[in-house]
Amino acid sequence: MRSHAIPHLNDARLGPHHRSRRGRARGRRHHHSVGLDDAAVLNPTKSLALLLAPRNVLVNAAVPHIIDTDRQDETMRLLAALTGKAEVQIRRERLEKPPLKRMGWAEEVAAVVAFLASERSSFVTDAAWHVDGGARHGIRTTNDHDRRRTT
What DSSP line would sit under 10-26, residue for residue? Predict the structure, then answer.
């Protein structure tokens, strides 16, 4: 795909359809497939951002966490089954972690994606936008990640 599509990309925005979740940032016992899925999204996002920047093509990722969807309900049920805890307890525990103490809404993720697809994001590329109610706890830059890797 890369050899066929890239020659035709100029002054474009890629990435609003790229989405990820927080599970890729650190391994978790019940999130191994999420981590693989997220790496499969974020690694090409970063690579494509660097590759396509000279053509003024912007590539970013939206990184939602604990969004109120049918899939989230399935995840709660699965975690309850895996841990033997009640689904209500799982839900309560998961909502204790983000500082906003609630699930996000699909519309909130869509607003970030709409921004990334708009002219207002014309100087934004190679970025992961966390839509997570503050669950990430802090700012982590690419340089921070690279420094940790090399030491």
Answer: -S-EE-TT-B--GGGTS
Rounded-to-5 percentages of helix, strand, coil across the chain: 55, 10, 35
pLDDT tens for 77-110 read: 999 999 999 999 999 999 998 899 999 999 999 9
Q: Which residue ranges form the domains of the chain, and what is each CATH number? A: 2-65+107-142 (3.40.50.720)
Cα Dmax for the chain: 53
As beta bridge partners, residue 129 has: 62
CA–CA dist 2, 4 (Å, integer): 5
CB–CB of 32/41 below 8 Å?
no
Q: Whole-model pTM?
A: 0.70
